[in-house]
């Protein structure tokens, strides 16, 4: 039984290290995807910003309100489209600012408060990589150690009733 638990401990450690090394790569890919979406959103909004600058002292909100207040249904729907592009841009800019604050906020956003469609996109196209920078190595080793310790505790807790019955 001791050999089995030793191998289980090694397997858990290696699994934790490999999983932990993947997390920084996922966060990096999430951040790059978030930035790419934000840049694309900026490009989509630029034409309307020029129009807002020309007619409404740069206020995109006034441009949207002008479109939506029109009697022409085409302009009203155009205002809704501009509003959707503008809101998406605001969401992406805020998310990218939050992501870029520090390493912890990048991890927090990528895993706990992501832009859902971007996280889903990254998850579906994630390319497993081993990014061996100091942060990834440290993250991997800590993950491996935690998984090995957690696994050891589970095995000991599960084995406790058997050991007690052997002593009786």
Distance between the termini: 20 Å
Instruction: Give helix and strand order, one letter per element, not per position.
Output: HHHHHH
Low-confidence stretches: none
Oligomer: single chain
Biggest sheet descriptor: none
Helicity level, as a percent range? over 70%
Strand tally is 0
| Category by helix and strand content | mainly alpha
Task: Look at the structure and give the mean pLDDT.
Answer: 86
What secondary-structure arrangement, pairings included, does this model have?
Layout: H1 2-56, H2 60-69, H3 73-100, H4 103-111, H5 116-125, H6 134-167
Helix pairs in contact: 1-2, 1-3, 1-4, 1-5, 1-6, 2-3, 3-4
Task: Give an overview of the whole structure.
This protein is mostly helical and 168 residues long. Helix content is 87%, strand content 0%. The protein contains 6 helices and no strands. The chain has helices at 2-56, 60-69, 73-100, 103-111, 116-125, 134-167. The longest helix has 55 residues, at 2-56. It starts with a helix and ends with a helix.
Describe this protein with a few key phrases.
mainly alpha; elongated
Task: Describe, in short, the structure shown.
This protein is mostly helical. Helix content is 87%, strand content 0%. It has helices at 2-56, 60-69, 73-100, 103-111, 116-125, 134-167.
């Amino acid at each position: 039984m001791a050999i089995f638990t030793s191998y289980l401990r090694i397997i858990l450690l290696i699994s934790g290290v490999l999983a932990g090394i993947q997390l920084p790569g996922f966060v990096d890919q999430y951040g790059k995807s978030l930035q790419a979406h934000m840049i694309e959103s900026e490009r989509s909004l630029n034409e309307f910003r020029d129009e807002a600058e020309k007619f409404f002292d740069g206020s995109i909100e006034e441009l949207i309100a002008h479109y939506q207040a029109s009697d022409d249904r085409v302009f009203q729907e155009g205002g809704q489209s501009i509003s959707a592009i503008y809101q998406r841009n605001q969401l992406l800019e805020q998310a990218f600012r939050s992501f870029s604050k520090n390493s912890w906020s990048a991890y927090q956003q990528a895993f706990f408060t992501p832009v859902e469609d971007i996280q889903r996109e990254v998850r579906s196209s994630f390319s497993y990589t081993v990014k061996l920078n100091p942060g990834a190595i440290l993250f991997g080793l800590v993950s491996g150690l935690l998984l090995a310790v957690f696994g050891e505790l589970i095995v000991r807790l599960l084995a406790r009733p058997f050991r007690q019955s052997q002593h009786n």
